[in-house]
Design goal:
Layout lengths: L1 H16 L2 H4 L36 E17 L9 E11 L3 E10 L11 E6 L4 E11 L6 E10 L7 E11 L4 E11 L1
Antiparallel strand pairs: 1-2, 1-8, 2-3, 3-4, 4-5, 5-6, 6-7, 7-8
């Protein structure tokens, strides 16, 4: 009886003496950083803040894009692309490890020549609705073969990809005349 009385007094004292602000470290606040549209340079790579905190080191795993293909077009969009009014809309589907069958949408502003005028943001959606967010950080064309190469960085997502990170190299063919693409690739992911 004495033990339970002492325990009750201790719990009441602890509840009265503590306040919520002292229990939540400031580095764990739920602030969010917006992805902004700006010309893609090494100085303005935009990475949104992760909303969760990893409890232990997340292993890096190999990821393969077995196939992906789709189409693209240039659309008028003054809201998203106030400087040029033109936005590239890239869509398609594919199959990849950890995603399974997926749909993809990439968006970015373009200039009058069709060149990127903002970071290329990607949204891959798995069959269950979990999304992976990406950004192209490098791209080039092999002038000997005409093959296109794109380096994507994973910058989080939703569901199982909430704290995802990683990078992969995608390569293949982009048919600018018919507005189609067919790409494969591989890289690493941690989630």
């Amino acid at each position: 009886m004495k033990f339970s009385t002492l325990l009750l007094i201790f719990l009441l004292f602890a509840a009265y003496a503590c306040n919520k602000d002292e229990l939540v470290p400031p580095e764990q606040s739920n602030t969010k950083t917006a992805i902004t549209i700006a010309p893609l340079t090494a100085d303005n790579l935009v990475v949104p803040a992760m909303t969760g905190h990893l409890k232990k080191a997340t292993p890096t795993r190999p990821m393969k894009f077995l196939n992906s293909s789709g189409s693209f077009e240039i659309r008028m969009n003054d809201e998203a692309c106030s400087e040029t009014g033109l936005q590239a809309y890239v869509w398609g589907s594919g199959n990849a490890t950890f995603l399974g069958a997926f749909d993809v949408v990439n968006l970015y502003c373009v200039d009058m020549m069709g060149n990127p005028a903002s970071p290329i943001q990607g949204f891959l959606t798995a069959a269950n609705g979990d999304q992976m967010f990406t950004q192209v950080i490098d791209a080039w064309i092999d002038m000997d073969t005409g093959e296109n190469f794109l380096v994507y960085m994973i910058i989080g997502g939703t569901g199982r990809f909430q704290n995802a990170s990683g990078e992969w190299l995608i390569h293949g063919w982009i048919d600018y005349e018919n507005s189609t693409w067919d790409l494969t690739g591989e890289g690493e992911i941690a989630f």
